[in-house]
């Protein structure tokens, strides 16, 4: 890319920060629904926000997520992300019909 078309570093950084913030903001409802699906109804509808977030009643009944469950979920997310970023593009390129990679990404 030529030097005249390259964006300044401040614009790229501010765009990246805004995009990261927007992704977190957009993903929050999905995260909240997922977390609430593991809660007891008493805690999910509690007026105390700390009771909703930490869920002592759910943990006492053994129905909440443990640290091991959370670590396993995080490990799964990391593995799937690495596969999607490293393995999947190569597979799409290898199965591309008529040298049209965009078509393979649509099917994928």
UniProtKB/TrEMBL annotation:
<feature type="transmembrane region" description="Helical">
    <location>
        <begin position="16"/>
        <end position="38"/>
    </location>
</feature>
<keyword id="KW-0472">Membrane</keyword>
<keyword id="KW-1133">Transmembrane helix</keyword>
<protein>
    <recommendedName>
        <fullName>ABC transmembrane type-1 domain-containing protein</fullName>
    </recommendedName>
</protein>
<feature type="transmembrane region" description="Helical">
    <location>
        <begin position="65"/>
        <end position="85"/>
    </location>
</feature>
<keyword id="KW-0812">Transmembrane</keyword>
């Amino acid at each position: 890319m030529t030097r005249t078309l390259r964006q300044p570093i401040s614009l790229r950084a501010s765009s990246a920060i805004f995009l990261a913030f927007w992704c977190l903001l957009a993903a929050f409802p999905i995260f909240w629904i997922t977390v609430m699906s593991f809660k007891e109804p008493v805690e999910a509808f509690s007026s105390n926000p700390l009771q909703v977030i930490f869920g002592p009643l759910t943990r006492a009944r053994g129905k909440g997520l443990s640290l091991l469950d959370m670590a396993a979920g995080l490990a799964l997310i990391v593995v799937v992300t690495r596969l999607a970023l490293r393995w999947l593009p190569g597979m799409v390129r290898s199965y591309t019909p008529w040298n049209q990679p965009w078509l393979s990404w649509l099917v994928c």
